[in-house]
Amino acid sequence: MSRKKIALIGGGQIGGVLAQLTAQKELADVVLFDIVEDLPQGKTLDIAEASRVDGFDVQLRGTNEYKDIEGSDLVIITAGLPRKPGMSRDDLLTTNAKIMKTVAEGVKEFAPNSIVIIISNPLDAMVTLFKKVSGFPANRVMGQAGVLDSSRFASFIAWELGISVKDINAMVLGGHGDTMVPIVRYSNVNGVPVMELLERKYNDKAKAKEIMDAMVQRTKMAGGEVVKLLKTGSAFYSPASSAIAMAESILKDQKRVLPTCALLNGEFGVSGYYVGVPVVLGSNGVEKILDFELDAEEQAAFDNSVNAVKSLVEDMERLGF
Ligand code: APR
Prior knowledge:
The protein is of the alpha/beta class. 45% of the residues lie in helices and 19% in strands. It has 2 domains: 5-144, NAD(P)-binding Rossmann-like Domain (Rossmann fold, 3-Layer(aba) Sandwich); 145-321, Alpha-Beta Complex (L-2-Hydroxyisocaproate Dehydrogenase, Chain A, domain 2). A 6-stranded parallel sheet has the order 3-2-1-4-5-6. It has a 3-stranded antiparallel sheet with strand order 7-10-11. A 3-stranded antiparallel sheet has the order 12-13-14. The structure holds adenosine-5-diphosphoribose.
Protein backbone atom coordinates (compact mmCIF):
# COMPACT_ATOMS: atom_id res chain seq x y z
CA MET A 1 0.00 0.00 0.00
CA SER A 2 1.42 3.32 -0.99
CA ARG A 3 1.52 6.10 1.52
CA LYS A 4 -1.21 8.71 1.67
CA LYS A 5 -0.46 12.25 0.60
CA ILE A 6 -1.52 15.45 2.36
CA ALA A 7 -1.29 18.86 0.73
CA LEU A 8 -1.12 21.81 3.12
CA ILE A 9 -2.08 25.05 1.40
CA GLY A 10 -0.56 27.87 3.43
CA GLY A 11 2.81 27.44 5.05
CA GLY A 12 2.47 29.98 7.84
CA GLN A 13 2.09 29.38 11.54
CA ILE A 14 -0.66 26.75 11.37
CA GLY A 15 0.70 25.19 8.15
CA GLY A 16 4.09 24.61 9.76
CA VAL A 17 2.62 22.86 12.80
CA LEU A 18 0.34 20.80 10.54
CA ALA A 19 3.39 19.61 8.59
CA GLN A 20 5.25 18.70 11.76
CA LEU A 21 2.31 16.82 13.31
CA THR A 22 1.58 14.96 10.07
CA ALA A 23 5.20 13.81 9.95
CA GLN A 24 5.46 12.94 13.63
CA LYS A 25 2.29 10.84 13.40
CA GLU A 26 3.40 9.37 10.03
CA LEU A 27 -0.05 10.11 8.67
CA ALA A 28 1.04 10.84 5.12
CA ASP A 29 3.68 12.35 2.87
CA VAL A 30 3.46 16.13 3.04
CA VAL A 31 3.45 18.82 0.39
CA LEU A 32 3.51 22.28 1.91
CA PHE A 33 2.43 25.01 -0.51
CA ASP A 34 2.78 28.76 -0.06
CA ILE A 35 3.04 31.74 -2.38
CA VAL A 36 6.03 33.05 -0.46
CA GLU A 37 9.17 31.87 -2.19
CA ASP A 38 11.39 29.50 -0.18
CA LEU A 39 9.22 29.60 2.95
CA PRO A 40 7.58 26.17 2.54
CA GLN A 41 10.86 24.71 1.29
CA GLY A 42 12.62 26.02 4.40
CA LYS A 43 9.97 24.74 6.81
CA THR A 44 9.75 21.27 5.32
CA LEU A 45 13.56 20.96 5.23
CA ASP A 46 13.71 21.96 8.88
CA ILE A 47 11.03 19.42 9.88
CA ALA A 48 12.53 16.66 7.70
CA GLU A 49 15.91 17.11 9.35
CA ALA A 50 14.31 16.08 12.66
CA SER A 51 13.16 12.76 11.17
CA ARG A 52 16.05 10.81 12.70
CA VAL A 53 15.42 12.28 16.12
CA ASP A 54 11.64 11.92 15.97
CA GLY A 55 11.86 8.61 14.11
CA PHE A 56 9.45 9.23 11.26
CA ASP A 57 9.58 8.03 7.67
CA VAL A 58 7.56 10.34 5.49
CA GLN A 59 8.53 12.63 2.66
CA LEU A 60 8.19 16.36 3.15
CA ARG A 61 8.33 18.79 0.30
CA GLY A 62 7.85 22.54 0.12
CA THR A 63 6.58 24.15 -3.06
CA ASN A 64 5.26 27.29 -4.72
CA GLU A 65 3.57 25.35 -7.51
CA TYR A 66 0.12 23.84 -7.46
CA LYS A 67 1.08 20.95 -9.71
CA ASP A 68 3.00 19.43 -6.79
CA ILE A 69 -0.23 18.75 -4.90
CA GLU A 70 -1.28 16.28 -7.59
CA GLY A 71 -2.52 12.97 -6.18
CA SER A 72 -3.27 14.35 -2.71
CA ASP A 73 -5.81 12.38 -0.71
CA LEU A 74 -6.40 15.22 1.70
CA VAL A 75 -5.91 18.98 1.48
CA ILE A 76 -5.83 21.24 4.53
CA ILE A 77 -6.12 24.96 3.80
CA THR A 78 -4.77 27.71 6.05
CA ALA A 79 -3.95 30.22 3.30
CA GLY A 80 -5.00 33.69 4.27
CA LEU A 81 -4.24 36.35 6.81
CA PRO A 82 -4.75 35.71 10.52
CA ARG A 83 -6.50 38.15 12.85
CA LYS A 84 -4.62 41.01 14.43
CA PRO A 85 -5.63 42.40 17.86
CA GLY A 86 -9.01 44.15 17.72
CA MET A 87 -9.92 42.55 14.38
CA SER A 88 -12.95 40.29 14.17
CA ARG A 89 -12.85 37.17 12.02
CA ASP A 90 -15.31 38.91 9.73
CA ASP A 91 -12.90 41.81 9.05
CA LEU A 92 -10.79 39.29 7.25
CA LEU A 93 -13.57 38.53 4.81
CA THR A 94 -12.54 40.38 1.66
CA THR A 95 -8.84 39.63 1.83
CA ASN A 96 -9.24 35.98 2.58
CA ALA A 97 -12.09 35.44 0.10
CA LYS A 98 -9.78 36.57 -2.74
CA ILE A 99 -7.14 34.13 -1.54
CA MET A 100 -9.64 31.27 -1.07
CA LYS A 101 -10.91 31.69 -4.61
CA THR A 102 -7.46 31.16 -6.10
CA VAL A 103 -6.78 28.26 -3.74
CA ALA A 104 -10.07 26.55 -4.68
CA GLU A 105 -9.19 26.90 -8.36
CA GLY A 106 -5.74 25.39 -7.76
CA VAL A 107 -7.08 22.46 -5.71
CA LYS A 108 -9.85 21.82 -8.23
CA GLU A 109 -7.34 21.62 -11.05
CA PHE A 110 -4.62 19.59 -9.39
CA ALA A 111 -6.29 17.54 -6.63
CA PRO A 112 -9.82 17.07 -7.95
CA ASN A 113 -10.52 13.92 -5.93
CA SER A 114 -9.22 15.16 -2.58
CA ILE A 115 -11.10 15.66 0.67
CA VAL A 116 -10.65 19.22 1.90
CA ILE A 117 -10.49 20.65 5.41
CA ILE A 118 -10.49 24.44 5.65
CA ILE A 119 -9.13 26.38 8.62
CA SER A 120 -8.86 29.90 7.12
CA ASN A 121 -11.15 32.50 8.67
CA PRO A 122 -13.88 33.64 8.61
CA LEU A 123 -14.34 29.90 8.58
CA ASP A 124 -17.98 29.40 7.66
CA ALA A 125 -17.70 31.81 4.72
CA MET A 126 -14.40 30.37 3.48
CA VAL A 127 -15.80 26.83 3.44
CA THR A 128 -18.90 28.05 1.56
CA LEU A 129 -16.73 29.80 -1.00
CA PHE A 130 -14.42 26.84 -1.50
CA LYS A 131 -17.44 24.58 -2.10
CA LYS A 132 -18.89 27.05 -4.61
CA VAL A 133 -15.69 27.60 -6.60
CA SER A 134 -14.52 23.97 -6.57
CA GLY A 135 -17.91 22.36 -7.19
CA PHE A 136 -16.72 19.45 -4.99
CA PRO A 137 -19.49 17.35 -3.40
CA ALA A 138 -20.47 18.32 0.15
CA ASN A 139 -18.96 15.22 1.76
CA ARG A 140 -15.49 16.32 0.55
CA VAL A 141 -15.55 19.94 1.76
CA MET A 142 -15.59 20.80 5.46
CA GLY A 143 -14.20 23.23 7.99
CA GLN A 144 -12.31 22.89 11.24
CA ALA A 145 -13.72 24.92 14.11
CA GLY A 146 -15.77 22.76 16.46
CA VAL A 147 -12.98 20.38 17.43
CA LEU A 148 -10.97 23.33 18.70
CA ASP A 149 -13.90 25.20 20.26
CA SER A 150 -14.92 21.98 22.06
CA SER A 151 -11.36 21.32 23.20
CA ARG A 152 -11.17 24.82 24.63
CA PHE A 153 -14.48 24.33 26.45
CA ALA A 154 -13.28 20.96 27.80
CA SER A 155 -10.02 22.54 29.00
CA PHE A 156 -11.85 25.22 30.97
CA ILE A 157 -14.11 22.59 32.56
CA ALA A 158 -11.09 20.43 33.47
CA TRP A 159 -9.26 23.38 35.06
CA GLU A 160 -12.37 24.37 37.00
CA LEU A 161 -13.01 20.86 38.33
CA GLY A 162 -9.33 19.99 38.83
CA ILE A 163 -9.60 16.74 36.88
CA SER A 164 -8.12 15.26 33.72
CA VAL A 165 -9.34 16.77 30.50
CA LYS A 166 -9.28 13.27 29.00
CA ASP A 167 -12.45 12.35 30.90
CA ILE A 168 -14.39 15.39 29.75
CA ASN A 169 -16.82 15.45 26.86
CA ALA A 170 -17.84 18.88 25.70
CA MET A 171 -19.40 19.92 22.43
CA VAL A 172 -19.60 23.28 20.71
CA LEU A 173 -21.91 23.66 17.72
CA GLY A 174 -22.95 26.50 15.38
CA GLY A 175 -20.84 28.99 13.48
CA HIS A 176 -17.20 29.72 14.32
CA GLY A 177 -17.83 33.19 15.65
CA ASP A 178 -18.93 34.86 18.84
CA THR A 179 -22.38 33.25 18.45
CA MET A 180 -21.06 29.68 18.69
CA VAL A 181 -23.12 27.37 20.90
CA PRO A 182 -21.41 25.38 23.68
CA ILE A 183 -23.92 22.66 24.59
CA VAL A 184 -23.94 22.74 28.40
CA ARG A 185 -26.64 20.07 28.84
CA TYR A 186 -24.48 17.35 27.29
CA SER A 187 -21.12 18.37 28.73
CA ASN A 188 -20.11 15.60 31.10
CA VAL A 189 -17.33 13.84 32.96
CA ASN A 190 -17.51 10.20 31.85
CA GLY A 191 -21.26 10.59 31.59
CA VAL A 192 -21.81 12.61 34.78
CA PRO A 193 -23.24 16.04 33.90
CA VAL A 194 -20.77 18.86 34.52
CA MET A 195 -23.56 21.03 35.97
CA GLU A 196 -24.24 18.45 38.66
CA LEU A 197 -20.57 18.36 39.64
CA LEU A 198 -20.42 22.15 39.76
CA GLU A 199 -23.56 22.31 41.91
CA ARG A 200 -22.03 19.85 44.36
CA LYS A 201 -18.70 21.65 44.35
CA TYR A 202 -20.27 25.00 45.27
CA ASN A 203 -23.37 23.62 47.02
CA ASP A 204 -25.18 26.46 45.28
CA LYS A 205 -27.11 26.25 42.00
CA ALA A 206 -26.84 29.95 41.20
CA LYS A 207 -23.07 29.95 41.75
CA ALA A 208 -22.68 26.83 39.59
CA LYS A 209 -24.60 28.52 36.79
CA GLU A 210 -22.46 31.64 37.11
CA ILE A 211 -19.28 29.54 36.81
CA MET A 212 -20.65 27.67 33.77
CA ASP A 213 -21.79 30.91 32.11
CA ALA A 214 -18.27 32.29 32.53
CA MET A 215 -16.74 29.18 30.95
CA VAL A 216 -19.20 29.37 28.05
CA GLN A 217 -18.34 33.02 27.55
CA ARG A 218 -14.60 32.33 27.69
CA THR A 219 -15.05 29.57 25.10
CA LYS A 220 -16.80 31.96 22.72
CA MET A 221 -14.03 34.54 23.09
CA ALA A 222 -11.13 32.07 23.37
CA GLY A 223 -9.67 32.79 19.93
CA GLY A 224 -9.57 36.50 20.72
CA GLU A 225 -7.95 35.84 24.10
CA VAL A 226 -5.00 34.20 22.34
CA VAL A 227 -4.85 36.93 19.65
CA LYS A 228 -4.62 39.57 22.38
CA LEU A 229 -1.69 37.81 24.01
CA LEU A 230 0.22 36.91 20.84
CA LYS A 231 -0.26 40.39 19.34
CA THR A 232 1.12 39.39 15.94
CA GLY A 233 -1.30 36.64 14.91
CA SER A 234 -3.85 34.10 16.05
CA ALA A 235 -3.77 30.67 17.68
CA PHE A 236 -1.81 28.07 15.74
CA TYR A 237 -0.87 25.05 17.85
CA SER A 238 -4.44 24.16 18.83
CA PRO A 239 -6.04 24.75 15.40
CA ALA A 240 -3.38 22.52 13.85
CA SER A 241 -3.91 19.74 16.40
CA SER A 242 -7.66 19.95 15.84
CA ALA A 243 -7.41 19.63 12.07
CA ILE A 244 -4.99 16.71 12.46
CA ALA A 245 -7.58 14.86 14.59
CA MET A 246 -10.03 15.29 11.70
CA ALA A 247 -7.42 14.28 9.12
CA GLU A 248 -6.50 11.16 11.07
CA SER A 249 -10.14 10.08 11.34
CA ILE A 250 -10.52 10.48 7.58
CA LEU A 251 -7.23 8.89 6.49
CA LYS A 252 -7.60 5.93 8.87
CA ASP A 253 -11.37 5.66 8.38
CA GLN A 254 -11.82 5.87 12.15
CA LYS A 255 -15.38 7.19 11.92
CA ARG A 256 -14.85 9.44 14.92
CA VAL A 257 -17.67 11.81 15.81
CA LEU A 258 -16.13 15.25 15.66
CA PRO A 259 -17.83 18.65 15.61
CA THR A 260 -17.28 19.74 12.02
CA CYS A 261 -18.38 22.65 9.86
CA ALA A 262 -20.50 20.73 7.33
CA LEU A 263 -23.15 21.57 4.74
CA LEU A 264 -26.57 21.03 6.30
CA ASN A 265 -29.43 19.49 4.39
CA GLY A 266 -32.33 19.75 6.80
CA GLU A 267 -30.40 18.69 9.92
CA PHE A 268 -31.09 20.89 12.97
CA GLY A 269 -33.76 22.60 10.85
CA VAL A 270 -31.21 24.18 8.47
CA SER A 271 -30.60 23.70 4.75
CA GLY A 272 -27.93 25.00 2.41
CA TYR A 273 -25.54 26.48 5.00
CA TYR A 274 -22.23 25.39 6.45
CA VAL A 275 -22.55 25.15 10.24
CA GLY A 276 -20.74 23.27 13.00
CA VAL A 277 -22.50 20.00 13.88
CA PRO A 278 -21.47 16.51 15.10
CA VAL A 279 -20.17 14.57 12.10
CA VAL A 280 -18.94 11.02 11.50
CA LEU A 281 -15.60 11.45 9.71
CA GLY A 282 -14.29 8.52 7.67
CA SER A 283 -12.64 7.72 4.37
CA ASN A 284 -15.52 9.38 2.50
CA GLY A 285 -15.10 12.59 4.48
CA VAL A 286 -18.37 13.77 6.00
CA GLU A 287 -20.13 10.38 6.15
CA LYS A 288 -23.03 11.28 8.39
CA ILE A 289 -24.33 14.24 10.33
CA LEU A 290 -25.61 13.23 13.75
CA ASP A 291 -28.83 15.17 14.13
CA PHE A 292 -30.30 15.30 17.63
CA GLU A 293 -33.00 17.22 19.44
CA LEU A 294 -31.94 20.58 20.83
CA ASP A 295 -34.01 22.09 23.64
CA ALA A 296 -35.73 25.42 23.01
CA GLU A 297 -32.90 27.53 24.41
CA GLU A 298 -30.21 25.63 22.51
CA GLN A 299 -32.22 25.76 19.27
CA ALA A 300 -32.65 29.54 19.67
CA ALA A 301 -28.90 29.96 20.21
CA PHE A 302 -28.18 27.66 17.27
CA ASP A 303 -30.59 29.60 15.01
CA ASN A 304 -28.95 32.84 16.11
CA SER A 305 -25.57 31.41 15.16
CA VAL A 306 -26.91 30.20 11.80
CA ASN A 307 -28.22 33.73 11.17
CA ALA A 308 -24.72 35.10 11.80
CA VAL A 309 -23.36 32.61 9.24
CA LYS A 310 -26.08 33.62 6.77
CA SER A 311 -25.28 37.31 7.04
CA LEU A 312 -21.55 36.59 6.66
CA VAL A 313 -22.26 34.60 3.49
CA GLU A 314 -24.54 37.39 2.21
CA ASP A 315 -21.80 39.97 2.87
CA MET A 316 -19.38 37.83 0.92
CA GLU A 317 -21.83 37.49 -1.98
CA ARG A 318 -22.41 41.26 -1.96
CA LEU A 319 -18.66 41.71 -2.30
CA GLY A 320 -18.87 39.68 -5.50
CA PHE A 321 -17.71 36.25 -4.35
N1 APR B 1 -2.01 30.82 -1.51
C1 APR B 1 -1.33 30.12 -0.58
N2 APR B 1 -0.89 30.63 0.57
C2 APR B 1 -1.16 31.93 0.79
C3 APR B 1 -1.87 32.73 -0.13
C4 APR B 1 -2.30 32.12 -1.33
N3 APR B 1 -2.98 32.79 -2.25
N4 APR B 1 -1.97 33.97 0.40
C5 APR B 1 -1.35 33.94 1.59
N5 APR B 1 -0.85 32.71 1.83
C6 APR B 1 -0.08 32.23 2.96
C7 APR B 1 0.81 33.29 3.57
O1 APR B 1 1.97 33.48 2.79
C8 APR B 1 1.11 32.67 4.94
O2 APR B 1 2.31 31.94 4.94
O3 APR B 1 -0.90 31.82 4.04
C9 APR B 1 -0.08 31.74 5.18
C10 APR B 1 -0.89 32.11 6.39
O4 APR B 1 -0.08 31.92 7.49
P1 APR B 1 -0.11 32.88 8.76
O5 APR B 1 -0.17 34.29 8.31
O6 APR B 1 1.00 32.47 9.65
O7 APR B 1 -1.53 32.54 9.43
P2 APR B 1 -1.93 31.29 10.36
O8 APR B 1 -1.74 31.66 11.77
O9 APR B 1 -1.29 30.06 9.83
O10 APR B 1 -3.51 31.27 10.10
C11 APR B 1 -4.03 30.98 8.83
O11 APR B 1 -6.13 30.19 9.70
O12 APR B 1 -7.07 30.28 11.82
C12 APR B 1 -7.02 30.87 10.56
O13 APR B 1 -7.49 33.17 11.04
C13 APR B 1 -6.49 32.28 10.62
O14 APR B 1 -7.14 32.83 8.42
C14 APR B 1 -6.04 32.49 9.21
C15 APR B 1 -5.53 31.12 8.80
